[in-house]
Amino acid sequence: MIADHWRAAVRPPKDGRLRDIIWPASFPNAPRARVPAHALAALVVITSLCEAFSGFYWADDDQVDHRLEALIGSFLQMGIPLLLMSAALAGALRDWRKVPYWFLTAAAWAASVLMTPLLLLFTWLTNDNDYCTANLPVHPLQLYVVPLCLLAALATGSSAGWITWVLSHRRARPVVLYAVWLATVAAAVVLILALPLHTAQTCGPTGMG
């Protein structure tokens, strides 16, 4: 029975519906997987945003030397929530019944709710503008940059999923489409934010005037 459920969950989207291809987190044949799939996507996007800020915002300022520590810290903070939510998604797809799936799901949500605010706070605290004597840094993540970035990243992820589906001769399974979609969205968030973050005014050479 579990094997049948697994095959149903990962078979190609029914009739190649466009919605299931460009938004693989819907998992048309596995309704239980939709919530952890969307939760995992949210965690990945938030982590990507924070990693982009830590890696690129202070890149032009020689006085800031904590960027590597911030990158590693962000990854370590979100490592457990990401792993637990991935396990919860796998459990939903495989329809685990002989293991305490409810405990795994509760642990995934608890870790996510606990660590996500801490990650955002940790990233915010990397704003070392106390030593600025001229122009104060402009925090680009407070403007319209992030919403536009997310829309562009989601569009890129959906395009990658559709291309994968076409190249696979319409046989790509939902799990594969989801993996491609999620990885593309995460990479797109970092790459799209890299330029505005790097060029934003800080206390470095571009900001002191």
Protein described:
The protein is mainly α. The chain has one domain (2-128, 136-203). The chain contains 8 helices and no strands. Helix 3 (34-56) runs parallel beside helix 5 and helix 6 (145-167) runs antiparallel to helix 7 (174-199).
Keywords:
209 residues, mainly alpha, 8 helices, single chain, 68% helix
Radius of gyration: 20 Å
| Counted beta strands | 0
Gap between N and C termini: 68 Å
Number of helices: 8
Helix content: 55-70%
Multimeric state of these chains? single chain
Strand content: under 5%
Reading the helices and strands in chain order gives HHHHHHHH
Mean pLDDT: 79
Number of domains as seen in the coordinates: 1
> Biggest sheet: strands, sense, closure?
none
Task: Describe the secondary structure blueprint for this structure.
Blueprint: H1 2-10, H2 18-22, H3 34-56, H4 67-94, H5 101-124, H6 145-167, H7 174-199, H8 205-208
Brief summary of the model shown:
Helix content is 68%, strand content 0%. It has 209 residues and is an all-alpha fold. The chain is flat and about 55 Å long.
